[in-house]
Specification:
The chain is mainly α. 71% of the residues lie in helices and 0% in strands. α3 crosses α6.
Length: 196
Amino acid sequence: NFFVVFPTAALEAAPQTRVLLAHLEGEAARAALQRDVVVAFPNVSALDATLLLRSLDAMFEQIGIAVRVLSLFTLATGLAILVAASLAARRERAREASLLRVLGASRSLLRRIAVAEAVALAALAAAGGGRAALAAAAGVVHWVFELPFDPPLGDLAGLAFAAFGAPALVGGAAAVAAPARPPREARRGGAGGSRG
């Protein structure tokens, strides 16, 4: 590819093509304009770009649906990982709970500790993830698409609440329930399991 730059006067006698764009509402108005232009200027080509724009709109809508489906798939994967991590840490949590019970902690205190930990971790995850996602979206919109960044604040608040609520609920539900066995028996069982 190459470009040739001419002074303005050098191309005045050369054949030229001019393009004019017009936006009209309604198919009848567009058809009337095309007819009038062709009747008045037979050498002018009048093209209706509505079909092209509709095709582009449909294509972008399908791309948007695909992105939403991938987002939901990513969210489901994240929830599965969250549940798996909670279940994997359950044995360690039970051990810590039995140790705290030996030291005199009540079941209600253990529940409050577990809920506070789940809520704090969920808040940190939601705040950190939300800020990182917002910064990434702003960067892509500003530097790649070169558009002004105007995030939908209502949707962002809903996403932040969901990002906070899901881990808090899963963590609170899978966190330590006070051991049903007496603490001494739980510690003996843990010690015996580690020996064998």
